[in-house]
Amino acid sequence: MRIKERSVFLSGPMSDDPESYHVDDFALAHNKVKRLGARDVYNPAISYLTYGSHPHTYWMRQCILELLN
């Protein structure tokens, strides 16, 4: 996996586990890609922790907006 100095967009299921939203899994992945040299990491779990729980459609829109930026 060549990610050194690249931007990385983490994706995966969140809304299927309303107890944790897989926040810990996303944190592990975030730390791993940073250690591998990623310049920027978009982590949807950070948005979840910042903005709280929303329906799946909300998060999909947010992800698409991030990809367009």
Overview of this structure, please?
The chain is mainly alpha-helical and 69 residues long. 49% of the residues lie in helices and 9% in strands. The chain is built from three helices and two strands; from the N terminus they run βαβαα. The protein has helices at 23-35, 44-51, 56-68; strands spanning 7-9, 40-42. It has a two-stranded parallel sheet. α1 links the parallel β1 (7-9) and β2 (40-42). The chain starts with 6 loop residues before the first strand and ends with a helix. The mean pLDDT is 86.
Provide key terms for this protein:
2 strands; mainly alpha; single chain; 49% helix; two-stranded parallel sheet
Chart the SSEs and their pairings.
Blueprint: E1 7-9, H1 23-35, E2 40-42, H2 44-51, H3 56-68
Parallel strand pairs: 1-2
Low-confidence stretches: none
| Percent helix range | 40-55%
The H-and-E topology, N to C, reads as: EHEHH
Query: Which strand order spans the largest sheet, edge to edge or round the barrel?
Result: 1-2
Count of alpha/pi helices = 3
The largest pleated sheet is described as: 2 strands, parallel
